[in-house]
From TrEMBL:
Keyword set includes Disulfide bond: no
Keyword Transmembrane helix applies: yes
Official protein name in the record: DUF308 domain-containing protein
Superkingdom of the source species: Bacteria
Bilayer-crossing regions: 14-33, 39-63, 75-95, 101-122, 134-156, 162-179
Record's keyword terms, sorted: Membrane, Transmembrane, Transmembrane helix
Annotated Gene Ontology cellular component terms: plasma membrane
A Pfam family it matches: DUF308
Record InterPro entries: Acid_resist_chaperone_HdeD, DUF308_memb
Annotated organism of origin: Paramuribaculum intestinale
Length: 193
């Protein structure tokens, strides 16, 4: 039993590190590409492609499964409907990305607010029994403020600023996550020695 708990804990730690690395890389990419005039359109098109590819795969898989279960309503039927919806939305995003740019910027703002709140919860409650200093709360609070600014502004006029704010926030958040992990897990390094 202790081995299983240790294995789950190790997997959770690996997942946290992977998430932190991905957030950092996405943040750096957003900072590097913020000057492009059409960066939000490219992001919309990438999301559209991420809907089209699994949607097409799910559709083909569901059709193949449905041919084996003829005449009955099956899970394949609902998968076909969901995959067609993903395909339609993905193709729409690929064909007319400008339509989704404003929506994407507001989604970025909402993500910043929610991610900032999540970090505050992690710092305050999930890091117990450790009490972290006040400066660990600065980045999450600034993320919430940045998200509110994005949500309350006219996004059409500031695509580049939205991407830059999002990139800086993600990089700062990933650095803060590393510091949180190092500060709340000193016992692992002591126990391993």
């Amino acid at each position: 039993m202790p081995f299983e708990i240790e294995k789950v804990s190790t997997m959770k730690t690996a997942n946290n590190w992977l998430t932190t690395i991905i957030v950092f890389i996405v943040g750096v990419l957003l900072i590097v590409w913020h000057g492009r005039l059409d960066v939000l359109q490219w992001i919309v098109m990438a999301v559209g492609l991420m809907l089209v590819i699994p949607g097409a795969y799910s559709f083909i898989s569901a059709i193949a499964r449905r041919s084996h279960v003829q005449g009955e309503y099956s899970a394949a039927s609902s998968t076909i409907v969901a995959s067609l919806g993903a395909l339609a939305l993905g193709i729409w995003m690929l064909v007319t990305p400008a339509f989704f740019v404003g929506l994407l910027a507001y989604i970025f703002g909402a993500i910043l607010v929610l991610y900032g709140i999540f970090h505050i919860v992690v710092i305050r409650f999930w890091s117990s029994p450790y009490v972290l200093p006040w400066w660990f709360y600065v980045i999450p609070v600034l993320m919430i403020v940045a998200g509110v600014v994005i949500l309350c502004s006219s996004v059409r006029d500031m695509d580049s600023a939205v991407v830059l704010i999002m990139g800086i926030s993600l990089v700062a958040s990933s650095i803060n996550s590393v510091l949180e992990h190092v500060s709340t897990h000193p016992s692992r390094t002591r126990d391993a020695a």
